[in-house]
Amino acid sequence: MFAEHGFRAATVRQICDRAGANVAAINYHFRDKETLYGEVVRYASARVVETYPFDPKPKGATPELRLRALVRNYLMRFFDPNLAWYGKLICRELAEPTDFFEEIVESDVRHYADQLTEAVKEFLGDEISSERLRMCSNSVAGQCLLYPYTRLILARLYPDDVITTDFIDRLVEHITQFSIAGLRGTRKRAAGKRRRISRTNGRPSASQILKTNRSSARPPD
């Protein structure tokens, strides 16, 4: 009921009617609706982590396998039929945050973000800046988030893309390979920039000086 209607709209009576319980049961076991909601959030988080752990890295896994596993786990958290209500609950919480928003971020989202950042860093190397690392990690996560959060729009734009196990497999492969190509390209460009700076000892190169001179010599618009 919380997933379908949100914390504020779901009523105690609706919940008890659906559970086949007396209305007084919530007050007896949880004191109030807010405490019940907190327990629901914690239960949902525990179920999801148990089924799709934060770090699914098998022993000796390559960076590519680890990234693929993280992508799959994140998508399945939203598309596993047995956990579909969890995804709805999180979407509701993002749209209408409650007092438990921070708890969700700290107990669930942050752990996944940390694991994803570690996996992305394996492709970028230790010399990458912290800002670039965050941007790249968020770009990978953004691809995963697009599908659960815009599923109604995508269903109308691309009605043939039905969310099946086979489609999720193809989606995982696409996001993984697309991300790896981007990460390797980012690392290559960053390495090239460091080499150019090293050759000039931090001074502007001849081409940069020429560009600056041409720009300063150009008449104003």
Q: How would you describe what is shown here?
A:
With 221 residues, the chain is mainly α. The protein is 76% helix and 0% strand. α5 runs antiparallel to α7 and α8 (130-149) runs antiparallel to α10. The chain is built from eleven helices and no strands.
Task: Describe the secondary-structure layout.
Layout: H1 2-9, H2 12-19, H3 24-30, H4 33-51, H5 63-79, H6 84-95, H7 101-124, H8 130-149, H9 151-157, H10 165-199, H11 206-217
Helix pairs in contact: 1-6, 3-4, 5-7, 5-8, 5-10, 7-8, 8-10
CATH architecture: Orthogonal Bundle
Within the CATH hierarchy, at the fold level, what is the topology? Answer: Tetracycline Repressor, domain 2
CATH C-level name: Mainly Alpha
Biggest pleated-sheet summary? none
In short:
By secondary structure, the protein is mainly alpha-helical. It has 11 helices and no strands.
Notable traits:
221 residues; mainly alpha; Tetracycline Repressor, domain 2; 11 helices; 76% helix; 0% strand; elongated
